[in-house]
Amino acid sequence: MSNAVEIALKQIKETVAERRRRGEYPIGLEAQLEAEFSSIITMSHRQSRNTSEQLRAFILHLETTMNHVSGRTATKSRIPGVGLLHKVIAKMTARQTLGLTGQVREVHVVVSQVLSLLSEEALSREDADKRMVYALSRHVLDKLAVIDHVAIISNDLERRLLDVENSLRPE
């Protein structure tokens, strides 16, 4: 940092400290602003967090249910003789149902990968948003300090200008 910037930052910090001593900045103003920014982030991401948790739950449920897809159906029946009929039909259609089961599993792998990537992307964006809000809150606090410093300098310049004007007036 250049010397001029360091001097300006030092002056700003001194101004902020002086204003705090005079009570112009309420105690905990920075904490209050941080809480406000945190509240904003929480409200904006509450829905996405719930969605992220639901998405993870659905992905887990998808994985669990797909592990149980076998292409086979129970052949038992409460009606006498129908169980045997179901067994015969199952044997006749096994080739097609097992082929279809394999195709469904292939689709499942792709769907699962896509959902996982989307979930990771959503979480990544949420984290980036949190970092951005934090940086913006720091930036706002810095700008407030700069504005206060500019106001002090402006008041000082006004006072000096009035002194110069008063000294130039004939008495």
Key words describing this protein structure:
171 residues, mainly alpha, 3 helices, rod-shaped
Short account of what is shown:
85% of the residues lie in helices and 0% in strands. The chain is built from three helices and no strands.
* Estimated structural class: mainly alpha
What is the gyration radius calculated from CA atoms? 35 Å
What number of domains?
A: 1
Net shape: rod-shaped
Characterize the largest beta sheet: strand count, sense, and whether it forms a barrel.
Answer: none
Beta content: under 5%
The rounded distance between the terminal residues' Cα atoms is 48 Å
Helix segment tally? 3
Weakly predicted, low-confidence segments: none
Fraction in helix: over 70%
Could you tell me the mean pLDDT? 79
SSE ordering: HHH
Number of strands: 0
Q: How would you characterize the overall build of this protein?
A:
The protein is mostly helical. It has one domain. The protein is built from three helices and no strands. Helix 1 packs across helix 3 and helix 2 packs antiparallel against helix 3. The longest helix has 87 residues. The mean pLDDT is 79.
